[in-house]
Amino acid sequence: MPKKRSNFEDGFNNQEFTLLEGNIKIHPNATIGSNSSIGKNTKIFNCTLATVNIGKDCIIGNYSILEDGVKVEDGSKIWHYCHIRNDVTIGKDCNLGDYVFIDSGVKIGDETKVQNYVPIYHGVTLEEGVFFGPNSLTTNDMIPRARTPDGEIKSGDDWEVGHIHIGKDVSIGAGAVLRPGIRIGEMALIGAGAVVVKDVPPGAVVVGNPGKIIKYIDGYKPK
Question: CA–CA separation, 183 vs 28, rounded Å?
Answer without folding.
Answer: 44
